[in-house]
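INFO batch 0412 | record 1 of 1 | parsing
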Amino acid sequence: MKFLYDEKIDKKCREDIDAFELIFDEKKKTGIFPVNRETMKKFESIWTPKVEEIFLKKVFQIFGTELPEDFVCFINSTPYSMDIKQGISVSASTKAPIRTICHEINHYLFRKSIYKDKYFPQIDIEEAKEIFTIINNIYFQDIMENQDIGWKKFWKDRFNFLSVWLKTIE
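INFO prediction complete | emitting tokens
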């Protein structure tokens, strides 16, 4: 995976965030976090070939597909990370880069998968993808810095879904 900074993508991320008053019923965080060569090196040094190898195997187990070889993780200056059409955009401020990358790639691949219709036919995709990330705690526990707890709004739904997921993979 490549790590890049793209000013246009950073600006689009900021505009998308600015459009919301609240984010998942929580007060929106603010701030600008500089993205420089040192920031990029931090991500490159943490996302090692071994981490990527483990990650890619687990992604295939979950989604039955491979991440494109040219997949890009854009680093942004906002307080938020997100999946975007071009890949994912991770906040330079994240204290858990591996967990954040796993979370956002889960969103990216969820949008392309059958899981929305299979498990969440009545739920908006933005909410469904947040609930689905609970499985990261199973598949990526060996590489994540800490657990993926997600947004407080979805905690109950996440734990309810986890039992459904565990039954389907047994």
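INFO post-check: The chain has one domain: 2-169.
INFO record closed
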